[in-house]
Each structure stands twice: as C-alpha cells, then as structure tokens.
Amino acid sequence: MKQSLRTVGLLLLLIGHAALAEDGMTLLAVFAHPDDESTVAPILAKYAREGAEVHLAIATDGRYGAQDFAGIPAGDDLAAARDEEMKCAAAKLGVNLVHYDYHDQLRAAEGYDGHVPHVRALLKDVSDLVEALRPDAIITWGPDGGSNHMDHRIIGDTVTGVFLGRDWGKDISLYFYGTPASLIEDDDARMRYGVLDRYLTTAIAYEPADFDAAAESLRCHKSQFTEEAIERMISNRKERGATIYLRKFEPPHEQSDSLFKR
Ligand SMILES: [Zn+2]
After folding, report:
1. Angle at the Cα of 89 (from 88 to 92), degrees rounded to 5?
2. Residue 242, class by beta-carbon neighbours within 10 Å (0-12 exposed, 13-18 middle, 19+ buried)?
3. How far apart are CA 152 and CA 204, in angstroms?
C-alpha cells in the first residue's frame, strides 16, 4: 500500500512537472496581417493554456484587405476594423497582442523610397521587441511566406535577419511555419509553398480546447471571411488533424573551410 501511494505520489509529481513544462517560457509569433495568426492559432492557444507567456506581433494594418461582402472600403476604416478584430482574436487565444500599424503591402506601390524606409523601421521595431521580450522561441513565416504573399515573405525575412544579426545572450529557437508538401495536391501550389515533409521536424500536437480557441479567434475576423467561409476553414482544419508543423532553424555548430565537406 505504501509503495503504491509512493508510486501515485511520484506519478502526480511527474504529471505536475509535465503540466508546468511551459511555465516561465516566452513564445513570440510574428506575422504580417491581422488573421495570419490563424495559421498557427491552435498552438498559440495551447502554449498560453499551458502557462507560457505568448506574444503575437502583427506588422501591418491590413488596409487593403477589402472584401465586397463586408462593405468596408479599403483604407483607414478597414484598418480600424481590423485592429478591433485582431484584439478580439488575440483575446480568444489568450495571447498578448502587439499590433504595429505598418502599411498593408509595406508601401510597395511607392517604390524603393517608400518601401525600404518603411521596412527598415519595421526591422528596428522587431529588433526592439525581441530585445524587450527575450523569447525562448519565435515562430514566423519561412521563405514561402505560407502563400508566397510578399508581405509574409518580408516579415519572415525581417524576423530571421533580426535573429541572425546579433548575440541575444540566450538560446532562442526560431521556427518557420510550413505546409507539408505531401498535403498539397496541386503541383503549382506545392511549388509555391510546400515544404518537404522531412524538413518539418517539429510537429506540435494540440488539444480540442486549443482547436476551439482557434476557431473562436478566426470568427473575430468578420471583415475578411463570410460566416460560411469561416466554418469551411474550421472544418478543413479538423480534417487535417490536430498538429502544426514547423521547420526549426538549425544554426551551424562548426567552422568549415569547404563548401562540400560533410
Ligand atoms: Zn496575410
């Protein structure tokens, strides 16, 4: 009896440890537009639920994302609506929101003199954010940008550049969201944003409660998706299984004097 009580005590201790594994950890996710977070929303909810400090940074104001059904014209009104939607979505996930007001499409239409200073300011903001938070892990877009969207790719580049540019004084793990190539049927789509399954070595499983939180947060983005579209996206996610796949940035550990040594 004593032995079994001791075993139960040990088990409870281990379970307690497992539940607390994310305690004290800080996760930062950085994406381009309000609603981009939906890509990884279940695992943001999961880590917040498990006790990690989760921060979500959204770079742009989404002012160009006008949808006919919503009746909100592109511009300041839409940017204001999307800011509110983003607050709603972050609250449903239980994460801290940092919503910058960089111009949707990062002033690409204004050419070099409009775009480059805008993106340099963003780079400084992201660097300051990493400095302030000193996260243990960062998630952003990989080179495919999830959909090949130029803003997505620039955000992924910006975060990666910040990560690579200096010694942050601690080990930060950098992850790129990836869509497994095996899940994309269309050849053209697979070329645009598929990532070979074997590179997606970080597979994060989530619970039904996280799925539900992600669904609720997606429902906040009312200016972007009709109710039918939202429910379709939610059911598509259910079919894909309760796992989010990521590619970890693996830093080199050894010096080399050859391109071809193995
Ligand atoms: Zn986007």
Report:
1. 90
2. middle
3. 22
Domains, in order of start, for the chain: 24-248 (3.40.50.10320)
| 96 or 3, which is more confident | 96
- At 23 the pLDDT is 79
Report the SS3 class of residue 244.
strand
**Burial profile 181-197: b = 16 or more Cβ within 10 angstroms, e = fewer:** beebeeeeebeebbbee
pLDDT in tens, 93-138: 999 999 999 999 999 999 999 999 999 999 999 999 999 999 999 9
For 21-70, the pLDDT digits (tens) are: 677 899 999 999 999 999 999 999 999 999 999 999 999 999 999 999 99
> Cβ(246)–Cβ(175) under 8 Å?
yes
CA 54 to ligand 1 center in whole angstroms: 20
Contact call for residues 191 and 218 (beta carbons, < 8 A): no
Those residues whose C-beta lies under 8 Å from the C-beta of residue 177, and which sit 6 or more positions away, are: 39, 40, 139, 140, 141, 142, 146, 244, 245, 246
Say if CB 248 and CB 204 are below 8 A apart. no
Pair of tokens at residue 221: 């983005």
Which tokens go with 116?
């480059």
| 87-105 burial: b if 16+ Cβ within 10 Å, else e | ebbbebbbbebbbeebbbb
Distance 36 CA to ligand 1 centre (A): 5
Which residues fall within 8 angstroms of residue 81, CB to CB, at 6 or more apart? 72, 223
Ligand 1: distance of its center to the CA of 256 in Å? 38
Q: Tell me which residue has tokens 């537009």.
A: 33
Distance 105 CA to ligand 1 centre (A): 10
